[in-house]
Amino acid sequence: xxxxxxxxxxxxxxxxxxxxxxxxxxxxxxxxxxxxxxxxxxxxxxxxxxxxxxxxxxxxxxxxxxxxxxxxxxxxxxxxxxxxxxxxxxxxxxxxxxxxxxxxxxxxxxxxxxxxxxxxxxxxxxxxxxxxxxxxxxxxxxxxxxxxxxxxxxxxxxxxxxxxxxxxxxxxxxxxxxxxxxxxxxxxxxxxxxxxxxxxxxxxxxxxxxxxxxxxxxxxxxxxxxxxxxxxxxxxxxxxxxxxxxxxxxxxxxxxxxxxxxxxxxxxxxxxxxxxxxxxxxxxxxxxxxxxxxxxxxxxxxxxxxxxxxxxxxxxxxxxxxxxxx
Length: 326
Known about the structure:
Blueprint: E1 3-5, E2 9-10, E3 16-17, E4 21-25, H1 40-49, E5 52-55, E6 60-63, H2 66-74, H3 88-92, H4 98-116, E7 122-123, H5 124-129, H6 132-141, H7 148-161, H8 167-183, H9 186-192, H10 197-210, E8 216-220, E9 225-227, E10 230-232, E11 237-241, H11 242-245, H12 276-295, E12 300-301, E13 309-310, E14 316-317, E15 321-323
Parallel strand pairs: 6-11
Antiparallel strand pairs: 1-4, 2-3, 5-6, 7-15, 8-11, 9-10, 12-15, 13-14
C-alpha cells in the first residue's frame, strides 16, 4: 500500500474529488505490483475503506462494491459498453439455431476430450480450453477444423456472433476458471460428474461470480451519479471491478468459496438477454464437463498442482495440469 494522495475526498458540492497530497495512507490501485497474482486483498481494502476512489494509473474513478458495479453495468446514467446478454444483443442476432449450437458444442467437446484421454498428463488450458470455444464457432459456420484457429477469430466468429465475436478469448478464460474450480475440489467432481443440466448451469454461474474472466470493465457517466462513498461527476471514466464485486460479503455469504449450491447466486460477466456468445459459453461449460468425465472417468489434477490464476484486466489459470487416467 502506498502513501501519496487521498483520492476519495468530498468536494464542496458533495461530489467526490481527489485531495492534494497529504502523506496519509491511500487507496491501493488494482494495477499495483502483485495485483496480477493476488488482487483479492486489494479489492477487500477498496470495498471496505475506499468504495469510491480516483486511480491515476487507470485514469478513472474506481467502484468495487457489488451494488455499485451492478448499477453501473445496467443504469442508463452510465454509457454501456458491449456486454453479451445486455438488451442490444437481442437486436443483433437472428436465426440462431439452438439445437445446432448444442450439437456442434457437444461434438467439438467430445473430439477434444478424446484427443487427450490416452495421455499420461495433459494441460486442459492449452489442449482443451484454448480450442473448444473456437472449435464450436468453427463447426457452427462450417469452417474446416484445420483452418479454425486462423479464421474463427475473424470472419467465422463474426458470422455467428456479430459484436460478440471477440468473446472467444473471454470464453476460453471463463472455461479454464470453471474447470479449475470444479477439479480443485474432489467433492465438486463427485457432485458434478453426472449432474443434470440445471446444476451444471448453477456451477457455471458460480464460477463466473467467483472468478470472472473480465476483472475490470470501463464505463463513463452521462450525468452525476451518487454511489457508495460519494458522487461521480458527469463525463467521468469509471473502472468497474467486476472481480471485487463478485466477492463482496455484503452481497454473498462466504464469497471466496466456490459453491454451486448457494442460495444467493449472481454474476456480472453476462447480461440476462439473448446472445449466442452467452448461450455458447454455457453450453461449452456443460459439454466440457460431460465430455471430459466421459472420456476420462478418473480425471483429476496432477499431484501437487493447484490452479493459479493470473491477470489484471482478464484473469484465468495459465494452466490446468491433469492426469487423464487418475
